[in-house]
Amino acid sequence: MEQFYTLQGEGAYSGQAAYFIRLAGCDVGCVWCDVKESWDAEKHPRVSVEAIVEAAAAHPARLAVITGGEPAMYDLNPLCDALHRLGFRVHIETSGAYPLLGTFDWITVSPKKFKQPLPSVCARADELKIIVFNKSDFDWAEQHAAHCRESCLLLLQPEWDKSEAMTPLIIDYVKQHPRWRISLQTHKWMEIP
Known about the structure:
The protein is α/β, with parallel strands linked by helices.
């Protein structure tokens, strides 16, 4: 769908320069999705792996983030292999609803209620990022954290439009459950993609 050079705004790598590769196509359908134009893959032209990697290599950072849409709908082995050959760390941001096909250096799983994540994908997550839209999301977060390995970074992130109401609840929750951390969408505060 698009690719761009910016800063990672969320999670463990927040603040680092990164090349984002946003793939079109998603059948998860989150009502609060901020990139709904990514859902229909047919509305976006196909781009070769070679062209994607050449564009990424034109920038100095060697961190590539594959996101979507739902990037795990595709076999990402060719893209991961090509990026790795040029020295990139390859990250994926996925809902976890599909098996992962590719070699990733960091896996962020952000499960959605609209299409449940696979426990096998949660078990591989380096980072579990739960978007907190309402109070019931804390219990839902714990259910998915139970499928993650002990070393997985657990993050609670307020849904952007609900951040004023949810952020204080997340702060209180993290103070009571210190295994969790808060993740903020810093790129939105900086007004960058």
